[in-house]
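Incident log, support desk, overnight shift.

02:14 A customer reports that sequence design results differ from what the structure should imply. Their input is reproduced verbatim below. On-call engineer (initials T.W.) acknowledged and began investigating.
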């Protein structure tokens, strides 16, 4: 049997099943004397079927993979049944069998990767002329589902599109000649591993999971049996069925149909959206770029509205906006209209003209109004008009021109600035003619997201690497540092972007760093020299090379008796940043981001998480700003996930850097991992005051009191960078704080180890 399975695609899964059979053979000799009886029981027809499959060409094997998978699944089912009827089974035998079954999903994933690789090879080498009409249908469906993936590479996509261009015209011609079934890709028998129970339910549809050509899919059926679509009903809706023709990266495609799906005559098959609805995705990823996701949705809507004839979605709500595995917004909801043609949008999303009996032909503008309400929901996390308890109240408010109020300024980090709010307001205008088109909205949103040109020195022609591109001196969450040199200048550090997944957020952050850094000039700020494009690397940010390394490395080597001058220099650099107009927030202040210059002055560097306060109203503060810093240095309000960086969060980090410099160790060094640190901060815990070694390095009661003051729980209770520097330079920190804040703070300083509330 192993020889039969070996030439086939599903090698790992087949081998897994084969190993299960061997296990049973080894453990069941006392119960089944003749092992051939087992084959008769388990494999009544599988042997013959597998022999036939083994003769198929590579491409045909791919096309018939569902049939192969079905044979293997039948063997698995038979094995399970056999295990239940054996009189007694050795526990070790059971354990071996269960272990084999546990890894079968992993094997299937490996098979899926192998399948896609072999498909590419087969399409390049094998002729398509020998395929039957049915096999061409299957191949078209397989290529379409592959193309629906946002992770497909451009060269592979081009190959698949070229093949489709060759074989689809023939199918279309047959359709014109009177073959109506070709309007729908028939996936009956091709979708395997269908869930036993629904994975989701809606008002109109029920959703099941399955697998098609190695990829997960969703299967939609009508929620109520009275809404099921029969074969006769199918003929009636084919003329109006356009979903199967949609081809856009932000629109959920219809892959095909399954006939006789249980009690439902017809089921619809689409790609599986692993992240679910946009609200579910944002709940799990609060730092996601919401403006990008909103732009994705309007891009899909603009595509629908510019079709000929235009397609009106009609039921835009958050529940029909999905997010794929790469964080891209996908417009969906078409299955509901398939099963219920009279469905209308929910009251909270209905335009005022929808309550009029007079039809004014503005159906596209209905979508625009609903889109505005969806955008508001994405930004706030609440449904529109959430303060109304009845539909009548909402209808009355909408007809009278009322709209939801603008949320407060805490949502600026979710991209809700004046420009986006203006778009929302125009989209829900009382007069449909005053609402912009989807294409106009798309253009405005893309303008908001467009990366600015870099106005910095280009050093490409004068920068050289000391060693190869693979020689990395240091690495961080967003960039790698290599050593190079600039002609007529000397050694330099080259920071390159590390791109993970979708490049846009990282590129935006990288450009922001270059833009902010290029405008900073201060004795305690690492100078920015320019950018350079080096063969084999992404764009590099160029700065002077500092041989002394960062401040903690330097202090460990030099062993200075007094560390206060280093701390004072860091404070001066922070005062400079916060004193800019508008202020600049560092966002990631820690010892590793403070270098020591040749003159032994500390230099603040790594502005990858820096942000200009003015820009907080014009950009989404993504997880890069909220969660990518290290919790050991992060202010507690940032760990909540809703607060944004501020000068006060920098001051908190300053206190941690001071601790780092006195101890030459990380903050909370007695806590092993981030979870313990986060729990401690949630409980308003603070680092323990270090011992005699820190005192020998300059830590006094007054300095410790300043550090505790920087760690005040409320950001408003922390000193500014200017005040911290004044306190540091004064002989008595306590006296300075009393003069700055008044006697009310004296109670906090009476015990230098007390927590600051």
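02:41 Re-run completed on a clean worker. Output:
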């Amino acid at each position: 049997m192993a020889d039969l399975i070996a030439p086939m695609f599903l090698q790992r899964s087949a081998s897994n099943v084969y190993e299960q059979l061997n296990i049973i053979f080894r453990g069941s000799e006392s119960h089944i004397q003749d092992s051939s009886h087992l084959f008769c029981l388990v494999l009544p027809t599988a042997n013959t079927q597998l022999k036939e499959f083994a003769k198929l060409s590579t491409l045909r094997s791919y096309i018939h993979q569902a049939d192969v998978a079905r044979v293997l699944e039948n063997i698995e089912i038979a094995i399970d049944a056999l295990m239940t009827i054996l009189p007694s089974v050795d526990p070790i035998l059971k354990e071996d069998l269960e272990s084999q079954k546990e890894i079968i999903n992993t094997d299937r994933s490996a098979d899926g990767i192998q399948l896609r690789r072999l498909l590419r090879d087969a399409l390049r080498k094998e002729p398509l002329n020998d395929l039957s009409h049915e096999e061409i249908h299957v191949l078209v469906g397989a290529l379409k589902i592959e193309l629906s993936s946002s992770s497909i590479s451009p060269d592979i996509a081009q190959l698949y599109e070229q093949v489709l261009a060759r074989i689809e015209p023939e199918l279309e011609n047959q359709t014109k000649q009177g073959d109506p079934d070709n309007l729908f890709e028939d996936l009956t028998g091709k979708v395997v591993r269908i869930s036993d129970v629904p994975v989701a339910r809606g008002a109109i549809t029920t959703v099941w999971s399955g697998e098609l050509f190695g990829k997960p899919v969703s299967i939609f059926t009508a929620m109520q049996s009275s809404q099921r679509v029969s074969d006769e009903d199918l003929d009636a809706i084919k003329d109006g069925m356009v979903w199967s023709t949609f081809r856009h990266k932000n629109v959920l495609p219809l892959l095909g149909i399954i006939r006789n799906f249980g009690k439902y005559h017809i089921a619809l098959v689409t790609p599986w959206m692993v992240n679910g609805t946009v609200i579910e995705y944002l709940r799990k990823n609060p730092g996601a770029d919401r403006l990008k996701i909103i732009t994705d949705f309007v891009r899909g809507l603009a595509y629908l509205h510019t079709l000929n004839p235009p397609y009106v979605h009609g039921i835009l709500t958050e529940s029909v906006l999905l997010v794929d595995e790469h964080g891209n917004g996908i417009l969906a909801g078409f299955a509901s209209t398939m099963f219920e043609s009279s469905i209308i949008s929910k009251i909270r999303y209905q335009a005022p003209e929808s309550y009029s009996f007079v039809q004014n032909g503005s159906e596209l503008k209905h979508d625009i109004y609903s889109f505005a309400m969806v955008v508001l929901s994405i930004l706030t996390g609440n449904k529109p008009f959430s303060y109304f308890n009845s539909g009548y109240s909402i209808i009355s408010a909408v007809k009278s021109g009322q709209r939801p109020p603008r949320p407060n300024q805490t949502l600026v980090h979710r991209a809700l600035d004046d420009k986006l709010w203006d778009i929302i307001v125009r989209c829900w205008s009382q007069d449909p003619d005053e609402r912009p088109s989807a294409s106009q909205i798309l253009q405005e949103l893309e303008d908001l997201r467009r990366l600015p040109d870099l106005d910095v020195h280009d050093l490409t022609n004068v920068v050289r690497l000391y060693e190869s591109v693979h020689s990395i001196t240091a690495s961080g969450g967003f960039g790698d540092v290599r050593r190079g040199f600039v002609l007529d200048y000397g050694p330099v550090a080259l920071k390159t972007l590390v791109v993970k997944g979708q490049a846009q957020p990282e590129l935006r952050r990288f450009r922001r760093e270059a833009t902010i850094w290029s405008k900073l000039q201060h004795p305690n700020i690492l100078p920015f020299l320019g950018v350079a494009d080096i063969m084999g690397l992404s764009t590099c940010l160029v700065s002077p090379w500092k041989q002394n390394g960062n401040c903690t490395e330097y202090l460990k080597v030099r062993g200075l008796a007094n560390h206060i001058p280093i701390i004072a220099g860091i404070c001066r650099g922070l005062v400079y940043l916060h004193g800019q107009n508008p202020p600049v927030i560092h966002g990631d202040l820690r010892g590793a981001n403070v270098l020591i210059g040749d003159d032994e002055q500390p230099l603040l560097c790594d502005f990858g998480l820096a942000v200009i306060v003015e820009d907080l109203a014009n950009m989404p503060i993504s997880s890069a700003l909220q969660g990518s810093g290290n919790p050991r240095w992060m202010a507690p309000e940032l760990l909540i996930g809703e607060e944004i960086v501020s000068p006060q969060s920098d001051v908190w980090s300053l206190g941690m850097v001071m601790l780092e410099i006195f101890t030459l160790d990380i903050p909370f060094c007695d806590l092993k991992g981030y979870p313990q640190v986060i729990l401690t901060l949630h409980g308003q815990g603070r680092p323990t005051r270090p011992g005699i070694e820190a005192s020998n390095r300059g830590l006094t009661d007054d300095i410790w009191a300043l550090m505790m003051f920087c760690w005040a729980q409320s950001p408003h209770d922390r000193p500014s960078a200017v005040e911290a520097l004044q306190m540091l330079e004064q002989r008595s920190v306590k006296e300075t704080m009393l003069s700055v804040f008044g006697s009310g703070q004296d109670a906090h300083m009476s015990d230098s180890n007390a927590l600051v509330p």
